[in-house]
Fold:
Amino acid sequence: MTGRKPGGRKGFVDTLIVMFLVIILTVVLVASGGWRTLAETLGVGDPNADLSSVINPKRTPLPHNTAKPEVTLPHNTAEPDTVMPDNTAPSQQAQPKEDVSTPPTPPGTGSDAGTVGYDMALKQLDSIRVAAPRQGGYDRQPQFGGWAATGCGKATTRDMILARDLTGVSRNRECQVTAGVLADPYTGRLIRFKRGPSTSADVQIDHVVALQDAWASGARDWDQAKRVRYANSPDVLLASDGPANMAKGVGVDFNGAGRYRNGWNIMAPDIWLPDNEAYRCAYMAKRVAVKHDWGLSMTAREKQQTVTYLAACRAR
Structure:
């Protein structure tokens, strides 16, 4: 009795059927989003793969960079205008900051929303009231809360601003920004951001008008809900170089003691200005817009120095 030879036409057809089923299963996984979970759990494949990358494997999928809606549930944060450590492991080595031959275009200074012209800023200054600062009783966490949740995974306002101001943004499955490149407005450098316990603070989220300044300029009279909204408002916030943000601190010398007086800041000795000269005028105009829009006051010296500085910016 002779046995039937293995393989042959039937074996070939069976192989084609199996391959076809594998392809159908892969497409279904990618289309339904199940592939991301499977890839991240097993540590295999590209979790960002889409249908186009399945059909044409040589095509590199674009990074997911979709902003998330903002809500106002407080989380903890630290003073001054810095970031809480990201609870991620393992530790990553700090990425080098790179000088660029020409100053980058900082967020809020181009044609996008948030641009403030010098004529408009000077006009807004007219309606900003002059008042002595009331600094007593400031306590950041109880009065302003922290970063709000965005409603997507574990992402907060910090992630929302990073996604807005960085390019080449990557996120994890909790919607948190894990990497990107910042054209830092305060230093004029490119900073390669990578989320991690030792690297997250390289890029911080600055309140253009610091929370302590806002408190002393009128926010102490607001209710808690309005202070939390201010602390998490995108029009107040800017991703920036961590050390520059820490050096800025409150951002204004209420006592007129020349805290910020030095060779490059002599035109506005009571007001902090960034090292990046290309961004100073835009920074001053943005600062005026925040104080105007939120009904905050200025000291007499602060207002006069702002008028003088912006008038010089307009004359250039």
Summary: The radius of gyration is 26 Å. The longest helix spans residues 8-32. Residues 117 and 253 are 25 Å apart (CA to CA). The beta strands are 97-99, 166-171, 177-183, 189-194, 203-207, 237-241.
